[in-house]
Amino acid sequence: MKCLILGGRGFLGSHLALALIGEGHRVRIFDRPNTAAALPAPGAEFVSGDFVNSEDVAAALEGCEVAFHLVSTTLPQSSNDNPLYDVETNLVGTLRLLELARTCGTRKIIFSSSGGTIYGVPQKIPIPESHPTDPLCSYAVSKLAIEKYLHLYSHLHGLNYSVLRIANPYGEGQSPLQKQGAIAVFTYKALRGEPIQIWGNGEVVRDYVYAGDVAEAFIKAARYPGAYRVFNIGAGRGCSLNELLSRLEALLGRTIKRDYLPGRRFDAPANVLDIGLARTELEWTPHTPLETGITRTAEWITKTFGVG
Questions:
Q1: Residues 158-170: pLDDT tens digits?
Q2: Residue 222 — pLDDT band, cuts 50, 70, 90?
Q3: Given 119, 139, 188, 208, which residue is catalytic?
Q4: pTM summary value
Q5: Residue 54 neighbours by CB distance under 10 Å
């Protein structure tokens, strides 16, 4: 395949680029100018541009059979501060992408949605794809709206697509200096001997899935010929923040100081995805144990940031 990765220099995009190149596919990466790659992807073509600029996106799509849409301009924590910006950059930008894709000969779009936020407070655990979607942040509302527009464009124009509702991805290349990514942030602070801030009592449960496994799911979704469109992608098991810190202490061989802060309104108490549909339809399963993934993350952070 000749593939376009929109947001291909980001954390997940870098893992996907490496996986595609490893399988012999031709890869074009589209990202903002002067954006450093989270991980190097030798052999990939890079084009820069603005996601909300139609001419830039059209040039990037040219000749590509499959487009992986990983662009996001906001984070769950900050999206409620400016929902208008979230809609203008993510939702409207994606509508332009869909209009261009249906006229540029793009065969399929694979969209990176958010299994960690799109369901809101779960009614049951694990969460299946059929669970109600009641997002608590603008970031997730925009993700859900994009899913609906993908369905609309499939119905109206025959544009093929898959949606991956990804849990909490982690691994090498995830910046520990950002506000998203508990494993990277916690590992970095632990290696520096800094206290770790926990929102709430630490019993919030999340589903942590290794980025290399997520990249494999993207590729399988690109090949998938079946009728299903939306897939949960996670580890399929939960881990509380307190448990995560205990595992990190065991792996690093040091005690981690914890500062507990008041909980946040947009944090669901638990989020663990049911990944049965991805297992049966995509023939995908995560295979990287949490300890292995954390070890790889810690080694990358130590090498990249000189801590440890």
A1: 999 999 999 999 9
A2: very high
A3: 139
A4: 0.96
A5: 13
